[in-house]
Inverse folding.
């Protein structure tokens, strides 16, 4: 027997991967994870779009007895169209006025909150409401326009200070300062059932909000049909997301001037006809669409008798809307409005009115058919 015990040999150590291989594996794993996250985000985005479209279709279907995808194309007799449209315009105006009455205390309390905040920063500052709320033309989607006077600071500095104060208030959801806009603007999103957007600006030489409000009120007194007409037209622009000038849309003041200009073209005889017509709101809406579907837009929309300094140098290639401001003839109210898109909306709505059939929701049918026409590129 051997005196030497046999010592077992140790098992060889497993081969270790080199550092380069490990780095490559890390890179591939990171790329795989990033691809997975991107795919998940894309699926979520597509699902969100699908949900939004499904919700929109369902809302339209619940508002109308007809699916907007199967609207009949036969025209309705003029008297039937006037009756259906007048009924809808009148009901819409009544619903808006009822909503305005219910929400007035909420909006007025917001004005008081802004007034208190501004007063804490600038004792003696004046806070006033202008625009749609002051005119009685605001809709659920309308912004609450507020202007601050006598704050003794430049607009951007003043709005920055006010933003810092309001941002921490319990009723504020978010704030956005548009410091580079023609009129610097602080947009404040309010929490709660009535998710109002407050637009706050500072009075300055080029700020004409209060003057515009006074002018619109004189137009409303002159044309009895103007209020229901504007409420419907504003809702049309909201439906097409074409109501914000800084996004290429048309604001309330420009829309009002367009409506007044169209009413003026008909003259006193047409105004007398409207005044004695039980379907006057419907007729005014039809006439406005007809007027602007044939209007050349080569010269300014000018609701005054004054000469216009806004005549374009190259009318056939005009890409934007020309609306002369009665308060400042050199100011083009439509300078940011995409003319081509506006014309497409007006033509689509005008054509869609010929597809309205007797039954409920003539305005919903018009909007649905116009949307479908624009999507198809008709």
């Amino acid at each position: 027997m051997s005196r030497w015990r046999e010592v077992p040999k140790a098992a060889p150590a497993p081969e270790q991967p080199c550092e380069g291989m490990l780095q490559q594996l890390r890179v591939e794993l990171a790329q795989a994870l990033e691809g997975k996250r991107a795919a998940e985000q894309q699926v979520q985005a597509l699902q969100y779009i699908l949900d939004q479209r499904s919700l929109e279709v369902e809302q339209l279907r619940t508002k109308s007895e007809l699916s907007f995808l199967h609207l009949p194309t036969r025209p309705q007799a003029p008297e039937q169209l006037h009756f259906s449209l007048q009924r809808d315009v009148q009901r819409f105006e009544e619903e808006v006025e009822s909503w305005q009455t219910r929400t007035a205390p909420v909006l007025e309390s917001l004005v008081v909150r802004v007034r208190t905040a501004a007063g804490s920063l600038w004792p003696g500052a004046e806070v006033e409401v202008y625009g749609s709320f002051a005119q009685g033309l605001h809709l659920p989607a309308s912004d609450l326009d507020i202007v601050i006077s006598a704050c003794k600071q430049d607009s951007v500095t003043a709005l920055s200070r006010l933003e810092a104060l309001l941002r921490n208030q319990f009723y504020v959801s978010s704030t956005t300062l548009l410091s580079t806009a023609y009129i610097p603007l602080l947009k404040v999103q309010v929490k709660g059932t009535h998710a109002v957007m407050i637009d706050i600006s500072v009075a300055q030489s080029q700020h004409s909000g209060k003057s515009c409000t006074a002018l619109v009120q004189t137009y409303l007194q002159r044309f009895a049909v103007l209020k229901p007409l504007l409420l419907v037209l504003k809702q049309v622009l909201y439906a097409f997301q074409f109501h914000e000038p800084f996004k290429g849309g048309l604001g309330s003041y420009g829309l009002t001037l367009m409506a007044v200009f169209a009413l003026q073209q008909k003259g006193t005889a047409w105004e007398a006809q409207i005044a004695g017509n039980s379907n006057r709101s419907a007729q005014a809406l039809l006439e406005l669409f007809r007027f602007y579907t044939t209007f050349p837009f080569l010269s300014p929309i000018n609701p005054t008798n004054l000469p216009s300094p806004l005549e374009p140098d190259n009318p056939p290639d005009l890409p934007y809307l020309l609306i002369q401001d009665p308060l400042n003839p050199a100011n083009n109210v439509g300078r940011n409005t995409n003319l081509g898109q506006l014309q497409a909306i007006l033509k689509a709505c005008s054509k869609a009115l010929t597809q309205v059939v007797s039954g409920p929701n003539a305005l919903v049918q018009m909007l649905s058919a116009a949307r479908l026409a624009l999507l198809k590129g008709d």
User: Anything to note?
Assistant: Confidence is low (pLDDT under 50) at residues 1-5, 60-74. The first helix runs from residue 19 to 63.
